[in-house]
Amino acid sequence: MPQQERAQRTRDTVLRAAGEAFAEKGFLGTSMADIFARAGVTKGALYFHFSSKEELAFAVISAGEELGNVVVQEVLASDAPPLQKLIDISIRWASYIQTDPIVRANVRLIVEQGTYSRDVPNSYDPWEQVASLLLKDAQERGELERSVDVKALAEFIVAAFTGAQIVSYATSGYKDLVRRVENMWQLLLVGLVPQGNPIIFFSRPYR
Amino acid sequence: MPQQERAQRTRDTVLRAAGEAFAEKGFLGTSMADIFARAGVTKGALYFHFSSKEELAFAVISAGEELGNVVVQEVLASDAPPLQKLIDISIRWASYIQTDPIVRANVRLIVEQGTYSRDVPNSYDPWEQVASLLLKDAQERGELERSVDVKALAEFIVAAFTGAQIVSYATSGYKDLVRRVENMWQLLLVGLVPQGNPIIFFSRPYR
DNA sequence: CAGCAAACAAACCTACCAGTAGGATTTTTT
DNA sequence: AAAAAATCCTACTGGTAGGTTTGTTTGCTG
What we know:
The structure is a homodimer.
Chain A: H1 5-29, H2 32-39, H3 43-49, H4 53-77, H5 82-99, H6 101-111, H7 125-140, H8 150-172, H9 177-192
The structure holds a DNA duplex (30 and 30 nucleotides).
């Protein structure tokens, strides 16, 4: 990794510029010229830090994943009930998608999977893991119907969230994403949460 | 449109080849050379029928949409109850995605929206319309909880289906798509269908 | 001040790509 | 069978892309 502060800074600006460009135009739609022009950096400087376009893309993906991990860790550390935690994670991640170029690039590059030569090992799996964990916890505490197959539900929640993101991007440029995610939870929870459990609040703002 | 049979045939093979290529590699990932090589046709012949890459892509999208319309019309003409119709449409469309290159290309090109210069007017809307219609019908017949906001539900169903498709592609190349869609319905219907209504069957095969 | 990391600059290379031009061939029309 | 129209073919063009090379300059650090 870079050994000077200045280097770290340029690396970061390149990464950010790449994030913006990839988020807007996708991997193949973005040229290296787009990126280093946007970053205000020369070609040489860029290639000093990232040896290829793919490597740069993967760096963006990783940076996005780290932000995801932070969100998950923070929410898990809170003292909310498990279902509430899951909802919080989804909505906080949704608002990250709305605002952070790196995160937007992350989700777009992941959806585009297959345009790269190597392929990332299943990027949805970690989210499913987290969801499964929390759902299982909720079920044990009687806050989720016992008849529900936790794994299947986790799978569905991740897919439904992904779909909300895709459709929201296409129709409103992510503007209505948080609303869509809240909508998802309202429709889902009707059938899955036993009567008499506490109402779940969608407390905004999240950032 | 072509005036000779021979021409119609080459047009069709080009369209099919383009569908396969776009489905596999996306719009920007596909070169015209990919397409006419796959079709076993020369460049000139291709450009006689389609004057640009974008036009070809839009032709593929249209062809896919037509197949979608056929599915919808066929199911609407059946005598199943409205919710069952909606489920049938979703599952039949899912199996089209699994098997038909043109349909696969259609969904991929639509998700990629934004890589083209012109943009298709909201491609999810027609599906939402159909869903709304059927859900409203179901609600009036007492086969759907009265408290449900039909428009919000339709919106969610379309997004959730789209998500299932995206995730299924990334993880299994569409192999588990039908299963995922069935899973979606099972989880959704629990809370939305009043007690005592007929059980809904996922009768396969659909083709 | 010596040595190395970082950044700049510009020319360069190779591959590929969308699209075009104009001629050849096939089919239809007269 | 001749003319006209539709279809198809080959070679070519202009441009862009990712990435390399070479050489120079700036800044940090010991």
